[in-house]
Write a sequence for this structure.
């Protein structure tokens, strides 16, 4: 492993590091006027404006709700905008005891088990790209989807109760990145691939067989809006060359029915730094152009009916079928492309090459014309390649390390610049803006921005006013919490005249969020409490076997003990449950409350059991009482002044 | 289960529910003056002042750091004050994949396994009371302790790297509540009990044997400051009557060496609503007085050397020995007591009865005089009871549902009022304040406050200026995120003239924090990066077997495969690892970075493995490669522009 090749050493441009001055703070103000308070706190007039700008008064609600992926925390975070307050975390792939997710409750355990990988419990994820469900290209507030890059999975969260209802494990791939994105009516959830493997990944093949046996993949999950579940039987995947497919976006309006995915490593580098090969970072960055994948999804769905093969229980359209049926085209895209973002009218696709200072804008019409014309180069696998200049509408030089682009309501686009640590604002041409394709301004962010997002920025009708910058490093921005530092979300205010100003730093003290979507709060219609007492969040209906008030009981049948319990401020019924060591215990609990926020918890110590019973909710746990002794269960929510008294004794008599 | 007894129905006083008006928001301001921005956002002059008050400018650091228990999330949260920004979450009892806590890394798996309960993995907790380490009664920024009420455990977190280093399972009890609190030089970590069980809890006894076989417990864990670990061999517990011991506080200055614990359920109610008995909430609330437990810790530690018995591997001082050696006294305390808080000079102990509108203040000197005098009543177990009036210094009527009290630097105390949903400010008498024992003012909070905290408020030298109210219900304060709503931390500004004003609402979108402590930021000295490359956070020293740059290798020995890997922007070495199905894999990884914030992740899909390698950190994983196929590991941190290329292939050749 001693021989080394020279390769590109990426430079992390951090920008100027500010000198740190702790806030002078002498125990708060004296209730005086703004000027004196400001002076006391060492604030400038600009600081005050920024403070006012971001301030959402106590008790008022944010007009926007942001859904952030939880990165390698495996969750989704719900954040108010512009206050940048974390409203809650939603357990998705990783158990969360405080919300009773994956700690004994049958409903959530079943969802998490759907995500098992080849029969193995995988209880974390690297969640990347949340996708809000859409109707006619606008967020509709019904559901949100998210992918697990690490293990190749997709989850469905119902936005009535902010509860994860389904996880699908892709049986073909062990990783994904380029999703989730949804089509304009949420007919399909797109799960783009990332690192090529054999298909399925469980079929071992040596790396020397890379070009013959390794393949890329994009998967189209059919979403059943009635059932609010992915219908795996109607879903299919499309085999792709063993390039590393990256972010996808779904077409809309004139491009509806098409999907666009970036890619890199068209070099088909296979790494092996230990053998003197260039590492992936160098080997996968040699080509000047990689390929934007242009996919005719609607036609592919038709063709898949007859020409898909079954692999590991999943319908797969072979690459040759995709080529033969004119489902797949490539368009060259410059240097280490990353984001691919469709403009609001569906007419343009914006891509960024991380090692190219431009964004490149393709015209959907030009792509269609080129397909019509039919003059193609071919890649080594026979995929038709559209000429770059035939597809290109414009290029705009923005700066170093452009990654992702979102849009506003005034014909401007916002692109993150990772190496510059900045956000660029630039004008769209065409019907959008008389300014044409032109850089307008940039604002520095701290530091190393990945994605960015604008309110409703990925829809057919984006709002303006704000940009949220998702910065990967925070370095000196906050008091350091040991060697592991938070990420930094920055709220950028965009004035009517286009001036951009960073007005708030929100440290992300948990897993690295990759992407967020921001929806108008009034599009969401969450339950305040569950519609009826005895509600099963799994079926979203009353569970006929739920414990009912006045019908609490303990029933023994051989060594099976079944318990029906209720909870209401401030007691459980019953308060004593006695079993024999080794008994199989099935315990039904119902929260009888109908008041908003009257959640009760149920903690059974020693047995790794924690439930969160929201008002009306019914839940069931199953376990074997294998440890003798006296176990004190209790309500984990501070539900009333006498909440400490809300407890019970679980007695396990020793056997033998 | 049909017969019911009347009992107290606690009333949850919510205060006035504000009408909700969404913030009018038209995409941000126009960069104008404060007045026009304020007008645009519908803010009053008061709102602006509040905004300015709470605003910590971007890039500047908070002067205070707040450590919040994570409630039934099982973690600790680190929050800046006054900005109320979540700086990070620390994995304590619950695995956290994004920080590589409990997902394959040997170090953290070993810590979590220390917390197994009777051999069973219990991977969550109900963390209650964080206690910062102290030197001479002041927070010293070295470590923080926290208890798990649900399962009777205590954890130790090192504040150099904000990493959990130790979990101790109390072998006697299955639950605790009244801790953790530390003595003024962190010689002892106090773990108070809660619900009585047999000792140990694994010894089944029927509830009919409650008075004879069930016992309360307080445990004193010896902390070894050099080793920065609890020394279980030097620790001991004290058996107590089967009342439900509640919060403890350690004496300081003149009361140093003593410990004070509240209690309730001196009725020894055993519940059983299903049999027509009063439920615990009623049965445990009948007496007018319960008992403050006054414990001579220093003397108990001496006596324990000779008179403690070994129970389940733990030294236990029997109740009779505690009585005989004059280690334990009771003082009556009014109606359903909860908090017990020692004043800064150690001279007074403040208790609150949840169902009594007063706080009661005891004089430590009066308690000592009464002990000296030696005229006691006795409880049914023979514990001497000091006369209430002999110990009482004062009572102050504050309002409904007083719970907890902290202090400031001007001789005032702040008490949470659960039923009133308010914070009361009152003057201490004695040497503290010429105002005597007197209610000064109250401020409403939203809603149902539990604990509160002031900066350094639990030390011998509290700061003033702020109060943080830990409110259990938020109801209408934020946009609702389904039936499960956040808690609400409110920042109260306390002006020099004593005026209190709620200036910020911070939703807690994860487990319910019970208590927080707030330390001056400049007392913390966190590592910016680990001191040397190859650092083991478990031993806090370089691991001699850590992978080193230039010495990466894969070594096979029979079916054991050992791998030494390194990570540096933006590649792993090696990039290919091939094993046979069924091999035992031991994989050492070192992050070679020495720059602050240059963390690399290591995600091995399909095997439930996620590491977070902070700069310099070395970690080891062990697993059996039981699933064949091609697995794509990668760095989960967006560490450079080419971070997507930072990956490798793990090949598992099928057996047979």
């Amino acid at each position: 492993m001693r021989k080394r090749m020279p390769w590109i050493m990426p430079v992390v441009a951090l920008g100027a590091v500010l000198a740190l001055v702790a806030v002078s703070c002498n125990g708060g103000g004296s209730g005086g006027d703004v000027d004196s308070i400001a002076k006391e706190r060492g604030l400038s007039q600009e600081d005050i404006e920024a403070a006012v700008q971001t301030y959402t008064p106590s008790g008022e609600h944010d007009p926007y709700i942001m859904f952030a992926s939880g990165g390698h925390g495996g969750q989704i975070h719900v954040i108010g905008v512009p206050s940048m307050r974390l409203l809650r975390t939603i357990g998705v792939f990783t158990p969360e005891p405080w919300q009773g997710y994956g700690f004994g409750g049958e409903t959530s355990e079943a969802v998490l088990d759907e995500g098992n990988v080849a029969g193995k419990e995988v209880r974390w994820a690297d969640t990347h790209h949340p996708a809000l469900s859409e109707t006619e290209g606008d967020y509709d507030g019904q559901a949100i989807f998210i992918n697990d890059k690490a293990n190749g999975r997709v989850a469905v969260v119902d936005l009535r109760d902010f509860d994860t209802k389904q996880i699908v494990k892709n049986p073909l791939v062990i990783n994904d990145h380029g999703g989730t994105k949804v089509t304009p009516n949420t007919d399909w959830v797109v799960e783009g691939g990332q690192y090529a493997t054999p298909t399925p990944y469980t079929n071992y093949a040596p790396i020397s067989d890379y070009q013959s046996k390794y393949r890329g993949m994009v998967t189209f999950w059919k979403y059943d809006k009635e059932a609010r579940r992915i219908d795996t039987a109607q879903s299919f995947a499309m085999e792709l060359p063993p390039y590393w497919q990256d972010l996808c976006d779904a077409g809309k309006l004139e491009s509806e029915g098409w999907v666009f995915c970036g890619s890199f490593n068209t070099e088909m580098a296979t790494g092996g730094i230990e053998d003197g090969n260039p590492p992936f970072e160098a080997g996968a960055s040699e080509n000047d152009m990689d390929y934007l994948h242009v996919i005719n999804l609607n036609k592919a769905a038709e063709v898949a009916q007859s020409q898909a093969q079954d692999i590991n229980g999943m319908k797969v359209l072979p690459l040759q079928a995709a080529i033969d049926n004119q489902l797949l085209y490539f368009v060259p895209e410059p240097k280490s492309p990353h984001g691919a973002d469709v403009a609001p009218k569906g007419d343009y696709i914006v891509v960024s090459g991380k090692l190219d200072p431009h964004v490149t804008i393709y015209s959907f019409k030009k792509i269609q014309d080129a397909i019509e014309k039919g003059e193609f180069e071919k890649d080594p696998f026979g995929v038709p390649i559209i000429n770059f200049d035939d597809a290109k509408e414009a290029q705009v030089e923005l700066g170093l390390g452009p990654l992702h682009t979102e849009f506003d309501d005034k014909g401007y686009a916002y692109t993150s610049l990772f190496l510059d640590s900045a956000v660029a604002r630039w004008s769209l041409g065409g019907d959008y803006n008389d300014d044409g394709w032109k850089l307008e301004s940039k604002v520095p962010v701290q530091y190393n921005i990945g994605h960015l997002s604008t309110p409703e920025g990925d829809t057919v009708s984006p709002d303006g006013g704000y940009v949220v910058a998702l910065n990967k490093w925070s370095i000196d921005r906050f008091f350091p919490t040991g060697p592991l530092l938070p990420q930094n979300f920055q709220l950028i205010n965009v004035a009517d005249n286009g001036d951009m100003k960073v007005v708030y730093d929100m440290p992300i003290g948990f897993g690295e969020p990759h992407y967020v979507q921001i929806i108008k709060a009034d599009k969401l219609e969450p339950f305040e409490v569950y519609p009826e007492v005895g509600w099963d969040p799994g079926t979203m209906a009353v569970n006929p076997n739920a414990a009912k008030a006045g019908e609490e009981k303990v029933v023994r049948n051989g060594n099976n003990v079944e318990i029906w319990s209720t909870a209401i401020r401030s007691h459980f019924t019953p308060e004593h449950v006695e079993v024999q060591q080794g008994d199989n215990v099935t315990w039904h609990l119902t929260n009888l409350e109908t008041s908003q926020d009257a959640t009760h918890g149920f903690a059974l110590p020693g047995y790794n059991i924690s439930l969160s019973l929201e008002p009306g909710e019914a839940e069931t746990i199953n376990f074997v009482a294998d440890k003798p002794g006296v176990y004190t269960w209790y309500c984990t929510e501070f539900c009333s002044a006498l909440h400490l008294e809300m407890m019970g004794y679980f007695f396990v008599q020793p056997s033998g």
Residues 1-31 of chain B have pLDDT under 50 and may be disordered. DSSP finds nine helices and 45 strands in chain B. The longest strand of chain B covers residues 229-240. Chain B touches chain A through 221 residues (CB under 8 Å).
